[in-house]
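A favour, since you know our structure tokens better than I do. It will help me judge whether the discrete encoding reads sensibly. The space below this message is yours for that.
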Amino acid sequence: MRVSSFAVARPAYYDRNATSSLGTYNNQIAPHTQTTRVTVTVAAGKKLLLELGNINFYRASVATVAGQVFIQHAVTSGATTVQLITASYFGNTTNDQTRIAFSGSVTIYAGELYFIDTLDSSTGGTVNFSLNYKGTSFDA
């Protein structure tokens, strides 16, 4: 005879085979099209709890013609992409910078893609991009 209780709560996410998930990119680069720098595809049977993120970029050297510079953190589920956070500027002064740190609890499900992109549509010059995230991956 098997005895069980249906009133037992499910373990919290951090007690379900949890592991840290970290991603970072830090580089000074020339103008470029939209480019993915960090990607995470959540494995079958898992979830990813996005906990912390950072966006930091500054113009290291002036551009001949300034264009948009941006970083975005986003999630793609099926054919739909949703921006979680994005920052951009059009400045052309050395050391122009944008910094955003965020925390929260965005849950990303199995098969979904979490990514961080950069773009510099200027002509000439360089921008230093620094971005990262920290999450916890756990059994669904």
Observations:
- Residues 6 and 12 are 16 Å apart (CA to CA).
- The longest strand covers residues 46-61.
